Each structure stands twice: as structure tokens, then as C-alpha cells.
Amino acid sequence: MKPTIEWKKDRVVLIDQRKIPNEEIWVECGTFEQAAEAIETMVVRGAPAIGVTAAYGVALGFLAINSENGLDAAAKHIFKRLAETRPTAVNLFWALNRMERVYEADRTGGLAHLKESLVNEACLMDREDVEINRAMGQWGQALLSDGDTVLTHCNAGALATAGYGTALGVIRAAVEAGKKITVYAGETRPFLQGARLTCWELHRDGIPVVLITDNMAGYLMKKGEINRVITGADRIAANGDAANKIGTYSVAVLAREHAIPFYIAAPLSTIDFSLPDGDGIPIEERDGDEVRTVFGRPITLPDIPVRNPAFDVTPARLIKAIITEKGIVEPPFTEGLAALRNKK
Ligand code: MRU
User: Which residue of 54, 140, 152, 166 shows the fewest CB atoms closer than 10 Å?
Assistant: First the structure.
């Protein structure tokens, strides 16, 4: 599969995830403002993909600067604009912090050098993300057995990352190891990342995928059709509470009721060690029209009140294990995640 995000000398090229599966259109961003808009409008989405795009956005912002006069003010503007795009995925802030450290280290070394360093750092983050996902896949695939049927929610695949995926990376690795895995993809109302994106990318890879509506999960678990759940995450607190796409919490509760292991696959950059628990995770609220319509077509009265939180938080007690690039953490997560953070 062509990468979700591609750097081409002085622009970043993104597959427009709003159009999949009906169209494959590529969007070119030549300015940091265009990169910010691409994140805001969900041309690109998924925590690691947002982080990598933001890093390229910073690089684009600096490439357009031609004078060292007012450099700090220009830098502040670029970082602030990109930080305001989406609030929940901590990978965005992690990537911006990493770029800011490069800026701080190289800001006095000449503009040409600074630009080169920032582009190199963004490209490095892009490459590293794929390696991290592959490592996560290797750890995680050991948790899957031949013949498993795995429910996933939203899209935590190649499209949500620089490549390979987190939750879908674990599934890909299990398939590469010769295991027969069937994926049940929850459609993921209201933005339909499961129906549109997860089905599209698994189908392309020849991995068996069955689409279900979100409200079918309990019934199918009760019938014994699902024996594992794996999702990604947008921000994990130090105690393991994990924010992910709205509906993930419901799936985790159902999984507990049916004694089905619920796993999260996420890189360490998704862990927000500054938050002791999930209560402090900011939850994005999106436009109500996403709920009132399905792809532009009204499904209710135009002014009916709705709620549209884009994420929920699954309490750590419902999570059997968190799969990271450095290993698998089981409860108690506070100790386990802190130990992995320092592991070489
Ligand atoms: O609103 P989205 O589509 O950006 O939400 C994405 C998710 O919730 C994913 O599950 C999460 O970012 C993990 S992606 C590897």
C-alpha cells in the first residue's frame, strides 16, 4: 500500500481519508496552514498519523521563512497553530515537542541548517513510526492464536499511522506468522472509520474482514463469534486508562461481561505520563451534523439536539494488556508502563 503520508522535498502528500473507499485522492500540503487544515478536517486522522503530519507541518512552516528576524515569533505561531488542530491524540503534542527541541537546539546555527534539521527530524519520525508498529506487531501477535476472530473498533491501521498500523499491525503480524485471523470491524459511527477505512485496508491485504454495526458486538460476543478485541488508543494515562474512538468503552465493557480479552496496541508516544488517570484526558467534541447526517444526508430533524464526543476513556481495569513497541504490559499498568518508558 502507498504510504498514508509522504514527504516530497517541500510538501507533504496525504491520502484523503474522507474519501476512502469511494475515491483514492491525494492531497498536497505545501504550507503549515494546509497541514493544520488537513488534520483539522480529517484528511489525515489516527493518533500517530496526526503526529507525523504535524511534524511535517512544522518543517513546512520553517521552509517558508526567509529571515532570522522575528524567528521566535514565527516559530511560536507555527507550533501554536498546529497544536490547536485536535485535542485528544497526545501524539500530536509529543511530535510538536520533539520538533520544538530540534528548533531550540539549532535555532542559532543558521536558517539553512535549521530547516534541514527540522525536515530530517520529521522524516525520521515518519520512518520510526513504521518500525515501532512492526515491533508492536511482533510482541502483540503472540497474543493471537490460529483461528481467532478479533473485533476492532475505528481504524488503527496503516492509514492511522505512517504504515503497518498499531492494532491492525498486530493482526498483520499474526497473519504473517501464518495464523488464520478473521477481523470483525465495528463500523464506528458517526465518522465510519471502521466501515470505510479498516475494511478497505484489510480487504486490500487479503485479510478476512467482516463488517458489523456497532450495536451488534454484544450479540456476536454472546454467540461466541468473537474471542479477542484489539483497538488502538489516542492517549493513555499513566495508570493505563485509555482514550480511543467513541464506542471503545462500550466494547470493553461487553468484552469483560463475556470474558473476552480486551487489548490496546499503542506506541509509547501515546502514553501521557503527566496524567495520573484518564479523567484529565481532553475529549474532542465534534460538530453535531456528523450525527444528524450520514455522509451529507439527513437522518433526523435538522435542529434536533445531539451529542458528539469523538472519544471515550476505557478504564484500565477493563484492559487485559497494553501492547507497545518495547513489550506487553499487564496490570498494574502504572508500574509496568513506567518501567517500559525507561527500558532501552
Ligand atoms: O478521530 P480519529 O479517526 O483520528 O480517531 C482515531 C482513533 O481513535 C484510533 O483508534 C487511534 O488514533 C489509534 S490509531 C493507531
Answer: 140
